Amino acid sequence: MRDMHIAVLTSGGDAPGMNAAIRTIAVAGIARGHKVTGIRRGYQGLLEGDTTEITLPGIVGITHQGGTILGSSRSAEFPTPEGQARARARLAAMGADALIVIGGNGSLTGAHLLARERPCTIVGLPASIDNDIGCSGLSIGVDSAVNTIVEACDRISDTARAHRRAFIVEVMGRRCGFLAMRAGLAAEADAILYGESGLGEDELVARLREVLRRAFGPDGYKQRALIVKSEGVSVPAARLAKRLADHLIDDAPGVDIRETVLGHVVRGGNPTALDRVIAQRVGFAAVVGCERGAHDVMMAWEPPGGAGAETADPSVRAVPIAEVLAETERLLDGTSPVIRKRMELLSQVEHLLVA
Ligand code: F6P
Question: Cα angle at 150 between 147 and 156, to 5 degrees?
Fold first, then answer.
């Protein structure tokens, strides 16, 4: 199908690489004869009719920029029946043939809701630093976030070594421990804490005391200990640090402990080359998918188990959003084989962390 009107929006937590996806959709869309309109501030902007036509001069050089040039939001009104009706009316008034939604689980849930009455073709792209989107090997933004965490941990390790200290570094990820796991290994952490383990506070403290005794005790040879904690572990980092500090007086006299919560630092910054490539390839697949009438699907990057249908790109598969959301539930309640696999892989190397 030629001469489509494709609308695109970014929604929920921004993720590095969103701009690379926007640019690809616009460049590919315009080159293939389509009109491309950006909707500002996610679903809230759609409800308010806050749109802008995307032209090639307007998107030069955005691939390397973090955040999203379209802005984002978490709209409370959009999922309501009134919000859905208004969104459909806005899309009709725009004359949109297709809507591409770039975002995480909340955004994809919104896309699926909207797709029910098919106001136009609706395609989703997985973008969230948390890597908690079902059927998505890596979502846009994950690799950049991992690299940012590793760099922060390396810096913290420098100062920690200088003072022979232990550090707890808390990272984002909502209920998903993926960022902590992957970055913790890469940063040579001594321990990685993630919510999926289900460990309670006392058990965590007992295990961490052992880690710190081994690192700094009479047979220890460490100048620093690094504990990477996912925000999915509900015990606050400061509270863990305080409890461990009370024990350090006996366990490793002279050793201090500090905590750092990286927070939104992890979400900003330039996307890595991998995130740009993922964004470009799923973005391109989305444009082609719209032309072919793909509806209520997400263009997934290397989905575990090869879910969905093939596209022209061997790394990108078109997965029904309903399937994505069902698998997301399993990721979050811990029943997905993907979670079991992540934990198994980590446990195989966990005993090496304290070496
Ligand atoms: O989903 C992305 C994310 O950055 C999570 O890791 C984090 O828990 C949450 O968003 C923070 O949301 P907000 O920016 O609204 O505080």
Answer: 145
- Model pLDDT for residues 18-62, shown as the tens digit of each residue: 999 999 999 999 999 999 999 999 999 999 999 999 999 999 999
Angle (CA) 8-84-74 rounded to 5° is 60
* Closest ligand 1 atom, residue 130 Cα: 6
**Can you give the pTM of this predicted structure?**
0.97
Return the SS3 of 170: strand
Six-digit token string for 170:
């808390």
- 6, two tokens: 């494709």
Per the DSSP assignment, residues forming a β-bridge with 98 are 6, 121
What is the C-alpha to C-alpha distance for residues 183 and 179, in angstroms, rounded to an integer? Answer: 6
Which residue's CA is the nearest one to ligand 1's atom 2? 13
Retrieve residue 152's tokens. 């922060």
- Residue 281 CA neighbour count, 13 Å, CB half: 20
Q: Are 195 and 208 in contact (CB under 8 A)?
A: no
Phi (first) and psi of residue 203, to 5 degrees: -65, -40
Nearest to 114 by CA among 41, 46, 48: 46
Q: Which helix (H) or strand (E) holds 44?
A: helix 42-48
Given 130, 132, 190, 275, the catalytic residue? 130
Active site residue 130: yes
DSSP 338-353: HHHHHHHHHHHHHHHH
